[in-house]
## 1
Amino acid sequence: MPVHNQDIAAVFEEMADLLDIRGDNPFRIRAYRNAARTVLELGRELREMVEAKEDLTALPGIGDDLSRKIEEIVRTGTAAALQKLRAEMPAGLTEMLRIPNLGPKRVKSLHKELGVQSLEQLEKAARDGKIRDLAGFGEKTEQHILDALKARALTGKRFLRAAVTPYAGALLAWLEKIPGVQQVAPAGSFRRAKETVGDLDMLVVAEAGSPVMDRFVQYDEVKHVLAKGETKSSVLLQSDIQVDLRVVETRSFGAALNYFTGSKAHNIAIRRLGQQRGLKINEYGVFRDEKYIGGRTEQEVYAAVDLPWIPPELREDSGEIEAAREGKLPELVRADDLRGDLHMHTAASDGQNSIAEMALAARALGYEYIAITEHSKRLTVARGLDEKRLMEQSEEIDRLNSELKGFTVLKGVEVDILEDGKLDLPDDVLKRLDLVIASIHSKFNLPVQKQTERIMRAMDRPCFTMLAHPSGRLLLEREPYAVDIPRLIQHAKERGCFMELNAHPLRLDLNDLHCRMARESGVKVCINTDAHGVSDLDNARFGIGQARRGWLEKRDVLNTHALKQLKSLFARTMGK
DNA sequence: GACGCATACGTCACACTATGAAAATAGTG
């Protein structure tokens, strides 16, 4: 099995956890965690960098030792140093870290004093009442452990952003109605529009004496109260989504929102800038010598460190602070910049609605055009279209267009890329369309080189407008197939074709890093919903969130262009 | 374990709250 960056990061994370339990040098532990983050956010496969003999120590947080370890992991799939740590400490210990209120110190004590090394043994020890007598534990902690195991309330579980969105909306509306509540705002990774979120962070401004905290923990859907205090509480909903609530006063709203939105790395960077200026920045405001000098709005916080306001989607400490300092922040694409949707299915293949229904729904969203892009014949499970049915659909679209005023339905297809890189329909058929979307629905397991070259061959066909869902991943379900996305982006640049950002909440494919890479390469990205019914058209908002995380501006997004311009851009991809 | 300044060594990621144990641990962005 080829080693992916995720595997390398997992080795470093596990080593950090084990070193943490062992009580090792905290800076060494941090070095492993930093390296894991660098590896995850790299956007290129380290395996390929190793093969190309690139200097890994040029990467931030990777020195001689870790670069050697990366090479070792690429070669063997693991690191001897990890095996050694595992021999010292059973692997079940890192699992115990995922239980709320158990951190490295307590896990170490459980292991050392009671010999506990798995969740099963932990449960038995708690049932037998052995844990309460350990130093640093008590009856309550023992009970919490049992509760957590029973509720399987392990932290670290992630949810699709789209899955959390309705919960956020409902909770927000409910909180707003509590007496004394003046303002409610979602924060955290949800506000940063991350594709998956670990919990839902909510910020509330309330008058003194407001019952907001008491009410919050009594919210209908609360399954388990993890913590409740004056200013901070956490609960677990029936759906296992954790919600953290912070209450602040008005003058702290901006500072708290900034803090609570994160990312952690961004906060640290901002606070360091504050320190350099002799300021203390915390969630209550900006302070000079204990004197409050701002924090009502986020703008005040950024202004204190001589920066303009930075959009939440960019706050990852991945260059946004430098860009802000130089006045080079992108003007991020917005939902109302979209003029159409270029990837959708109808009842002719595996969709639910007619072409007319899709067109009317899109027009109601304010769009000027859509493209109908059914699957091709190879995809029999989706009733893919052959040449004949595709041409019949063309005629239907012509009839519809003659009736629609100020709205255009474009003729497209989502043609399968076959194993040899050919397309599933002949060129003379494709040529009669406005655009050709191509994608992979078979042979996901090819080696990276073969998969990449397969797609590049497809891109070189006379008719090829854009590559749909380029990595094939399904968030939280299926890993991307082994494919060299940077190379595909480069090839798209040379070929003059486009990359899709599939806005389906389960896909969001391209990911944010690759969006940014496409922008830097000058390859336009198309935000498509891949709708299989009218209600799916609304998913464009998730694509917008992802695009913004990828630093995309309006001009970087294909379907912000007017129809005329779009058609001329398509013509070059269709051999015209 | 990385990194910068120096070539061996000191420094490294901020700021704060809740909990439950009896001073510390865990957890939040």
Note: The radius of gyration of chain A is 26 Å.
## 2
Amino acid sequence: MLARAVRIFEAFSPGETTLSVSEISRRAGLHISTTSRLVAELTGHGLLSRGPGRTVQIGLRLWELGLRASPTLTLRQVALPFLKDLTHLVGHHAQLSVLEGMDILFLERLSAPGAVVNLSRVAGRMPATATAPGVLLLAHADPERQEEALAGPLPTYTRRTIGDPDRLRSALAEARRNGFVTSPGWVEHVACGLAVPVREADGSPVAALSVIVPNDDRVFGFLPALRAVAMEIGLVLRRAHAEPDT
Amino acid sequence: MLARAVRIFEAFSPGETTLSVSEISRRAGLHISTTSRLVAELTGHGLLSRGPGRTVQIGLRLWELGLRASPTLTLRQVALPFLKDLTHLVGHHAQLSVLEGMDILFLERLSAPGAVVNLSRVAGRMPATATAPGVLLLAHADPERQEEALAGPLPTYTRRTIGDPDRLRSALAEARRNGFVTSPGWVEHVACGLAVPVREADGSPVAALSVIVPNDDRVFGFLPALRAVAMEIGLVLRRAHAEPDT
DNA sequence: CAGCGGAGTTTCATTCGACGGGAGTGCCCG
DNA sequence: CGGGCACTCCCGTCGAATGAAACTCCGCTG
């Protein structure tokens, strides 16, 4: 069954890339014989692969399929050089992310040496309401999704993370008004995020461009540059959309 | 069934990232009602997603799962800054690839503006025997895999691509002797590949580092730099392997 | 060295869910 | 307006997934 296979994949987390069969069966809540059989089958398709000893890891084929045809690829490809420049400019982290359910999903993240702490990872998730790009994208999402966020739990990292619905509501309104979001100390006391939207041809935000910098009063100084880069990425994106490939 | 789901994923190619349900059913050779049901189910899991109109595309979740825990991620992450430098140095393309079956699979590819033509893509495949990194990695693979390559068909791009087993055999031997492979005009007449191995702690090559440059007599001039970079990637890789994460 | 226990795979009867024919729905185009 | 197409839904049949249990292969321990 398909759902079981997905459960198996989800047993792997960014921290633990290799697991044993019994470990998988425990995490996925599957019978061990089922797990064994499914792992064998998935391995046959290259979606999983066996490492040294009895370990199992995600297979190259899954990576290949996921990357090959995803609409994400274009976005990432287009944004990469801009992110590079941005990283140099701010001297810390630059990241590109999209909204997935109630989480923010990081498509790409570049860091300069000696940058402030940053919990995000490429292909990693964080609760949308706890991050600058998350609040920004949520502010432009369907009203129903916003309601869901307001109704749901609001996980916090520090005392400054948005913890109650009222504060979230005003943060969303402010995000729409300003066109950007800052997250001073939301995740780490010493760090501050700054996020702006990357817009498609129709004006709807498809992704967030953000930087993580030290949490001091120089944060807003990066805003103009960030906006300019986001605008440019949008431009190139629309051009790439019009005439695919190269 | 699982095999069917994989067939569906494989219906998507790098060129065509969005398909209709009937198109998928045709390519995957599945009954349309089966396809419809499976697509719906896969969409539910986020492995596929529906675009505008009735189009279907690869879902973000597949990308996420594939990227999140793959051993590839470390390799790519480590190599990325080195590839960037290399791209600047040679002024054309730099790529990182691994051997998958009889194909070479490109993990990362960076290009300088105005570079020579290059058919490769990130997450794309090419026949191993037709490329420099492919022949290099094949030369260090199990003997049985080499035999399979020698026995199998040898697809060619130009008249200079390796087309017969004898030439392949001597190319493999030469690759082992030299520790590098050049591919003058194998894929495009005007371009030449140059590939060296990236080695693990035990000395076995895990990937190939290669550049694509114009097909003239300056090709060998890049060899020392390429070797130095490959060595350094291997070094960092071993360190990252010893103490995971950061 | 025998005996234990945990991990993994294989076997097999049961049953559950996938399959695909066919009907139904909405859409485009003549 | 009516035929054709793309897609989804429904449902009886049947095949394939499931999980208990048996079996194998370790490494440990008394």
Note: Residues 129 and 135 of chain A are 5 Å apart (CA to CA).
## 3
Amino acid sequence: MTTAISKARVSKELIFREAAILFQRKGYQATSMRELATQVGLEVSSLYSHIRSKQEILERICFDNAEQFIKGLEQIELGICNPASQMQDILGLHIDRASIDPSSITVFNDEWRQLDEPALTRFIQLRKNYESRLLFILESGIEQGVFKRLDPQILLLTILSIMRGVHHWVKSTKSDKAEEIKKVISAIMLDGLLFGK
Amino acid sequence: MTTAISKARVSKELIFREAAILFQRKGYQATSMRELATQVGLEVSSLYSHIRSKQEILERICFDNAEQFIKGLEQIELGICNPASQMQDILGLHIDRASIDPSSITVFNDEWRQLDEPALTRFIQLRKNYESRLLFILESGIEQGVFKRLDPQILLLTILSIMRGVHHWVKSTKSDKAEEIKKVISAIMLDGLLFGK
DNA sequence: TATATTTACGAACACTTGTTCGTAAACTGA
DNA sequence: TCAGTTTACGAACAAGTGTTCGTAAATATA
């Protein structure tokens, strides 16, 4: 009867993807569902045919990424028990993930505080667990004499800081040179940094 | 006539201090003026006897810190023109400021995106200027053969990442060991990092 | 084809947001 | 003491928030 213009239907995935981009640009709180709707090409209320709530989007982004990192770490832990190469692999893991999906990672890094309870506590728990496993590798490396004898806690935080920053310069460096970045950071972190030649 | 219970009057400074703490904990957008009011011990409307707007608070926090860093950098630039010691001083500058006022620095680092125009553009401009001056020091160091010949852009971003993370572990490390942190990070950044002995 | 399920919509709701206004109290300086 | 200024308050406002609901169209299933 009416002209049958087939409206391009929208997938759940698209919503999460666009949400990640908006959350990255403006932050979770500053992004409205109406904004997300127009970005996706829907009316606000239509979003709720796909998702339960705004929080659900944030939770999915955060915990999906958490899962990826945990799985990656498990692989590394099961590999050769060599702290130096393990650390290098962990660097690679973070840089790769930041390259693959920068906006999602940014939300994971910066917006997890906006999680409601009980998700927030659960997330922090995962994070703590992940970090303590990194700490273990660092301590092992120190004990084995392969890492310098520095405060492992501070070492850990330094490394995490660098990794939390990777997504920033995935964008600011022109080409898609994840490999280049990996090389430079490894050079800085492992081989020694600036000084000398 | 009535019982003269003197209401403890509130200073502008207190408002900015408490705001920084709240903005740090929950983010700028997630912090309401009503929340800030009760934290300060006032009713909402009373806040506006002291400040013009919520944005003004954020602007002041961001630009005050920017000014501090710029002034600090100027001092360093005017000092001995030795890239290695200059970098060390810059590390010290960031660590000191993060130790002195962690919440303010956190807002400066993480919440500046919530600035409205035209403050946002102005802030980004300041930041760009600051970073390009750091880049210059790095490039000088490379040219003089005192830094390794690595992509200075990536070097810069790595260093900035570390500094953006400092405020996190000022809290998580027990004692107030800014000096200890300075030593470890310098060791990592300048002398060489993990490997070897 | 007819039926059931998924997706899209407009309107509305209850609530929170930052901010303003008029006014009264508290303080300051003479 | 009195005038003038600063500070605090309650009430209210307009705008924006996430979300719900009933319904209709589109798609899938049979």
Note: Chain A touches chain B through 46 residues (CB under 8 Å).
